[in-house]
Amino acid sequence: MPARLRKGLIATATRIAFCVVLGIAASPATKSADPGIRFADFHGPVLRATQLHLIYWGIDWTGTLPPTADRITAAVRTMMASSFMTGLHQYRGIGRGTLRDATTVTEPDAPILFDDHEVGDFLDALFDAGRIARPDTGNQNLYLVMTPFGTRSRDRSYAGEHSYYVHAGRRVHFAWITHRTTLAETTALLSHEVVEAVTDPEGSGVLGVDGTCHRFGWCEISDVCSPTGVIDGVVVQSYWSNAEGACVVMDAPPGGAPRVQRAHQTPDDVHLVVDEPRLRPSRRREP
Ligand SMILES: [Zn+2]
């Protein structure tokens, strides 16, 4: 497809793409039920068996500055096979995903500033060079680009984003997250992007009904949930469960059946930097 058209599609997607997770630090926990939160299936694509491609962009990822690429990769592999994913079953039967591969790309090095267009161009170059697999026929693929320390989005208010564009006739579902200083912050932010890219890769899948979110962009199931939890040793962000009417993390004890745990805000929760207070999730519910 001509680059101009592809870029047009990127721009369209970007304008409506959701943002991230931007913390909660200053807000008291909401104790009362919030009947306004509900998510519905708008019947667009979802990724029921995600094939995740992790791409570490930049020479800094070859260093030993924590969190290292190896540790992040190990945590993500665990997360994709865990109850974090099977807990999404209520949303059109979404289940476990697979970490398909992890690739570190040092040439070209990551730019200090980037946007969705540049991430798309970067991925296209990797496809064309045969360095990462193009989307499969079933297109369960999700490309997650990790940018290194010292880089940021041109739009400072976003710490991560997911969206899609079209390359060679296939939709490329992608996400990026900016560098976090700890493994826990990294996996919390990454889990937010993954769960929303899986349930709503193109802005037409599982979305909040009117009144669920109060900000611009796709209203997705982690946007109303700030608390984090730990699954199989990996810190993840909670997401909204319609079935529970709450933000939850799914726990699966060894040898036992998965069970729902309502997510609680605790002093140990990961608080990501709030660059833009208006983007703070305006609603959440806690038991
Ligand atoms: Zn989000």
Would you mind describing this structure in some detail?
The chain is α/β, with parallel strands linked by helices and 287 residues long. The chain has one domain (3-279). It has 5 helices and 14 strands. The protein has helices at residues 3-16, 69-80, 83-86, 116-128, 183-199; strands spanning 39-41, 51-57, 98-105, 113-114, 141-146, 152-153, 160-167, 170-177, 206-208, 228-231, 234-237, 239-241, 246-251, 259-262. The strands form 5 sheets. The chain has a 5-stranded mixed β-sheet with strand order 3-2-5-8-7, with helices on both faces. A 3-stranded antiparallel β-sheet has the order 12-13-14. A two-stranded antiparallel sheet has the order 1-9. A hairpin with a 2-residue loop joins strand 7 (160-167) and strand 8 (170-177). Helix 2 (69-80) crosses helix 5. The longest helix is centred in the middle third of the chain and has 17 residues, at 183-199. The chain starts with a helix and ends in a 25-residue tail after the last strand. Residues 1-33 and 265-287 have low confidence and may be disordered. It binds zinc ion. Residues 18, 20-21, 192, 196, 220, 222-223 line the site of zinc ion (ZN).
